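Weekly sync, protein design subgroup
Attendees: M.S., D.O., the rotation student, P.L. (late)

Item 1: inverse folding check
M.S. brought a backbone from last month's batch and wanted to see whether the design step gives back something sensible before we order anything. D.O. pointed out we never logged the input encoding, so this time it goes straight into the notes. Structure tokens as presented (261 positions):
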């Protein structure tokens, strides 16, 4: 077994070396570039405090974009995940649904933002639509995988008494998969807040619009103000997410369950 593990590790290392060569990875260039990074870091310490007001309001817009995109995206993901689960449907149902979800995941959120900017014009609405699409593709996949890991015994027991598929989903699937969905929702909101911060690159609203433009014109001190606000916001969201997980999700020997308070 040790020889097998050593062989696997050796193959992985060899692949990393080959891939590094193909992408022109050069550690020397990295270390030579550190002084340039130090110059930028020094300029970013020259924070222009008068911009904090604008930064907070643009961050508020970003949070709203991420909140709407996450909630709507998860709401759309839930029924799609039911149709994509192999233990609930035939391959003629889950196959096409999974293909659609895979197609949605093919495009990163920044590309969805470009498409929606073309469709609805510049502004936060295009960003919201991009977040919704990315959330649907990501959460639906995680959720149908969670549904497929549900213990088959409760499902078989409920199915044996002649309940409908809707009743099976309502009384077994949803309660069993709810903790996973809550965890995915919290993660996606955290991710979408950070992701929304770069959608401004294509004019899709949010605080990223200011960050990208200030960096583009080498105004690092101004960009630092908005980056500080993003950092503080992400830390707060992470703290709130931990509290929510501690309150509603408990790990036990039987898996995860939602605690009703």
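Designed sequence read out in the meeting:
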């Amino acid at each position: 077994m040790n020889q097998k593990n050593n062989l696997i590790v050796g193959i992985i290392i060899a692949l990393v070396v080959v891939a590094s060569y193909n992408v022109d990875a050069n550690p020397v260039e990295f270390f030579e570039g550190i002084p340039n990074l130090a110059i930028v870091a020094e300029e970013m310490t020259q924070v222009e405090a008068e911009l904090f007001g604008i930064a907070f309001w643009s961050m508020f817009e970003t949070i709203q974009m991420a909140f709407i995109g996450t909630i709507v995206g998860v709401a759309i993901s839930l029924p799609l995940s039911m149709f994509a689960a192999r233990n609930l449907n035939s391959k003629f149902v889950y196959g096409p649904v999974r293909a659609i979800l895979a197609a949605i995941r093919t495009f990163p959120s920044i590309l969805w933002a470009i498409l929606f900017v073309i469709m609805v014009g510049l502004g936060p609405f295009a960003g919201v639509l991009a977040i919704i699409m990315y959330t649907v593709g990501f959460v639906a996949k995680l959720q149908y995988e969670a549904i497929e890991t549900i213990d088959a015994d409760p499902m078989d027991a409920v199915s044996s008494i002649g309940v409908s598929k809707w009743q099976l989903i309502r009384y077994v699937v949803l309660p069993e998969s709810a903790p996973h969905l809550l965890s995915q929702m919290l993660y996606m909101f955290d991710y979408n807040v950070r992701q929304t911060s770069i959608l401004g690159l294509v004019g899709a609203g949010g605080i990223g619009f200011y960050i990208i433009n200030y960096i583009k014109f080498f105004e690092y001190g101004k960009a630092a103000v908005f980056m500080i606000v993003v950092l503080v916001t992400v830390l707060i969201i992470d703290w709130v997410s931990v509290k929510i997980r501690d309150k509603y999700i408990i790990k036990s020997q039987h898996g995860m369950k939602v605690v009703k308070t």
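Discussion: Residues 20 and 26 are 8 Å apart (CA to CA). The chain has a mean pLDDT of 81.
Action: P.L. to compare against the previous round before Friday.
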